[in-house]
Structures are given as C-alpha cells and as structure tokens.
Amino acid sequence: MTDLDGALAEFDHALSLARDVDAPFTALLALARASVGAKLFTFMTVDMRAGLASRSYTSHPAEYPVSGTKPIRYDDWFDQVHKRRRCFVANTLADIDKVFPDAELIGRLGCGSVVNLPVVLADALVGTVNMLHEEHHYTPERVERARSLLSLPAKAAYLASERLRD
Fold this sequence. Notes:
Protein name: GAF domain-containing protein
Radius of gyration: 15 Å
CATH topology: Beta-Lactamase
CATH architecture: 2-Layer Sandwich
Distance between the termini: 36 Å
Number of helices: 6
Structural class: alpha+beta
Oligomer: single chain
Number of strands: 6
Mean pLDDT: 95
Order of helices and strands: HHEEEHEHHEEH
Largest sheet: 6 strands, antiparallel
Low-confidence stretches: none
Organism: Nitratireductor thuwali
C-alpha cells in the first residue's frame, strides 16, 4: 500500500464515521494535505439559481469564517471554473491578486498559490475545493493529482455533509 492508498483509506474511514457537517470536509482536507498539499483549505458551495456562493468549510475559521453568502461574480474565473469546469490555478501572489480581492490576507497566511477544483454533480457545479500553499507549489503534476485524486472524494464529502445537514 502506498502513502496515497493509506490517505484514501483514512478518508474513507473518516467519512464513514462522520457525524457532523464539518467531518467530511475535515477528512477531505487531510486527503488534500497528504496528496497535493494545502496550507489553507476551503470548500465553497454555489447556488446558481440564486446566484450565490457560500463557504461551507474552512481550515482557518478566524480569517475565513463559515457565514453568509456572497454574489457570484461573472468573470474569467467563473468561465473557467463554472462554465468549462476546469481547475483554476495561480502560482504567484501577484496572479492571485488579479482575481481575488483578499490577496493581501492570503499572503499574510504564507500562501502564494491556489488551485480551485470544481465539484460537479448531476451536470451542475455544486461547489469548489480551494487549496492554497506557498508560491509555485501547484505544479502541473500536483494540479493533475488534485483533479484526478480529489474529484471523487470532494463529491463524497459534499454529499455526506449535505446528508448530515438534514
């Protein structure tokens, strides 16, 4: 068994024991850290009918609390992640600053690269997994690993969390 096999097994086990809405995402965070690395991790859900996004989970609740909603911005990032359903990657703080208004805070947290992984179910985008790390961390190989290894677990975490909300 490789380290990734063990990380996947741990994710599966944690998901099977989840009793609160954060537990599936905490398990996904552990898998993301083991497979591609993430200093800062959030999961955003989207409600396309209402045009709203909300943070469902965060590794940094003081800086990025889970609360409220924000309007979805229709820009190049939206086209790439929502329409084309492709990962968005920025590997410098300067590139992050072009897209995200909180680049200064991201930098203070020791991060300078980001990958946003779209989560699609029933042919609809339901959310994004947002992983941040130091500059130049998200190489093409790590982005591909995130896409191939975390896509299915992200769907499972989202569905498990939604079930626990009921």
